[in-house]
Design brief:
The protein has helices at residues 3-12, 20-31, 46-57, 72-76, 110-122, 157-160, 174-182, 196-207, 213-228, 238-254, 262-278, 289-296, and strands spanning 36-39, 61-65, 77-82, 87-92, 99-103, 124-127, 130-133, 139-144, 165-167. It is an alpha/beta fold and 302 residues long. It has two domains: 1-202, 3-Layer(aba) Sandwich (Rossmann fold); 208-302, Helicase, Ruva Protein, domain 3 (Orthogonal Bundle). It has a five-stranded parallel β-sheet. Strands 3-4 form a two-stranded antiparallel sheet. Strands 6-7 form a two-stranded antiparallel sheet.
Length: 302
């Protein structure tokens, strides 16, 4: 693994113990220029992970608490008339930051949730007919509570498909939780490991990772199988195929390779595809669609 990425994981692990795999996948998602959805019970460290990522990468961070009364203007910004110069002045909302924590996104109304879609897809927002670019890099980390908790609204499949990856932290093991109880390190105390310019260079290098025809064929076989088999109620979209390939390139890159292998695709498949395959209506299905898919599609198939 690259030493700078390994150092980021080690630093974040000072505040989130025993979750090195999820931290690594979160960094892979960022390097792939995607967005991340974290689903878990309250108090599992979703917010801490988001703050820690922004801190070690030296990025501007903003938290938006999604509630039932949150309006799109509260997130995007608003034009306010100023009598001193008889002009409207734009006051940007918290969306104009590099790392956005959309906390408890499924507690907001569908109208407010949809206001986030243009920002995620186009890296821009349109307010009163004026399109404004968002900063680069732009990384949305959305958290949601399980759908069986009160006051939640399921994210539609079209919005789930906008998230490059979905991860779950889960409960820590005994030793990790003990270390966390004895540790007083906060996310704000972490130092910057990779600055803004270095991060942009890393993302550009990920774009240049080579992909063979065999790997592209494997990715296409995976997505086409979900479209042809009745085992998968929600087939993978072309956006999902692109996300899978880009994320596999980022995984190859952090492991010091300039080419993608089928193992890279398999490594990221669950995080990229599981939430797309099951959709919101099957959010609590015990079986893993992505594992089933890996078993059914041979990476060496012609």
């Amino acid at each position: 693994m690259r030493t700078d990425i390994k150092s980021c994981i080690e630093h974040i692990s000072q505040v989130i113990r025993g979750k090195e795999s999820q931290i690594e996948l979160s960094l892979i998602c960022l390097l792939a220029r995607g967005h991340l959805l974290l689903e878990d019970l309250p108090g599992m460290g979703k917010t801490t992970l988001s703050q820690s990522l922004a801190q070690v990468l030296g990025l501007e961070f903003a938290r938006i608490q999604f509630t039932s009364d949150l309006l799109p203007a509260d997130m995007l910004g608003i034009n306010i008339y100023e009598q001193s110069n008889s002009k409207f002045s734009f006051h940007p909302g918290p969306i104009f930051n590099q790392v956005i924590l959309a906390d408890e996104i499924n507690r907001a109304s569908p109208k407010t949730q949809s206001a986030l879609l243009e920002a995620m897809a186009e890296r821009q927002v349109t307010i009163d007919g004026v399109t404004r670019d968002l900063p680069s890099p732009f990384f949305v980390i959305a958290t949601q509570n399980p759908l069986n908790q009160s006051g939640t609204h399921p994210l539609p499949e079209s919005q789930l498909d906008r998230f490059n990856m979905q991860l779950s932290l889960g409960f820590p093991d005994y030793q990790s939780e003990k270390a966390m109880l004895l540790n007083e390190t906060q996310a704000s105390q972490l130092k910057t490991i990779i600055d803004f310019n270095a991060l942009q260079e890393l993302q550009a290098l990920v774009d240049n990772v080579k992909v063979s025809d065999a790997v592209i064929h494997y990715v296409l076989n995976l997505v086409n199988h979900t479209r042809q088999s009745s085992d998968f109620p929600n087939p993978l979209s072309p956006r999902a195929a692109k996300s899978l390939l880009n994320t596999a390139k980022a995984a190859a890159f952090i492991h010091r390779r300039d080419f993608v292998t089928p193992e890279d695709v398999q490594f990221v498949l669950s995080g990229v595809c599981e939430h797309r395959l099951k959709g919101h209506s099957l959010a609590h299905t015990a079986s893993s669609y992505s594992e089933h898919l890996l078993q059914q599609v041979d990476p060496l198939a012609a």
